[in-house]
Amino acid sequence: MKIALINENSQAAKNALIEKTLRSVAEPLGHEVFNYGMYSADDAAQLTYVQNGILAAILLNSGAADFVVTGCGTGEGAMLALNAFPGVLCGHIVDPTDAYQFTQVNNGNAIALPFAKGWGWGCELNLQYVFEKLFAEEWGGGYPKERAVPEQRNKKILDEVKKVTHNDMISILENLDQDLVKGAIAGEKFSEYFFANCKCDKMAEAVKKLLA
After folding, report:
1. Which helix (H) or strand (E) is 153 found in, with range?
2. Rg, the chain, Cα only
3. Which of 41, 46, 47, 63 is the most buried (most CB within 10 A)?
């Protein structure tokens, strides 16, 4: 699994700690981690939580990433921004129980964490335990297990609903404020990571136009 890490500007100073913790859990399980920044609060390319949503949608809909780890101060804004897009199902994760139940019940492809709220003593431990429970089992298995069948059915229904209620990503990228979109893909490592992993030629072409 290709996992993309995205931080917005208010919590960019924590990027290194988040990346280190995520890698320590995910890489021994065979997953790859791609850090799309922000890397520090002083980065030339600044991301808002709204742009986190744009960037995450580009990565997930193109196949450049299979899963996105992101967040903001409370995690709420990032979660809302990601869920505004097609092909993205983002959960708001506060603790390890949230992480486990999200993967088993909702089987989504992104999480938004609160990187300011409750970020005190032991925060790195909670972060580690969240990631451990996130990847503890194959996703979509249901919780409790006897609820697996209706939960899996509801997830498929939600996926079909989102297909109807959202435009396709190419149209979205063309109609959004272009400065907003270009800012979302202005990170120093975006092009390196995205084009090496993108699986959709149409998305690649759309992004090339934006970068030109």
Report:
1. helix 148-165
2. 16
3. 47
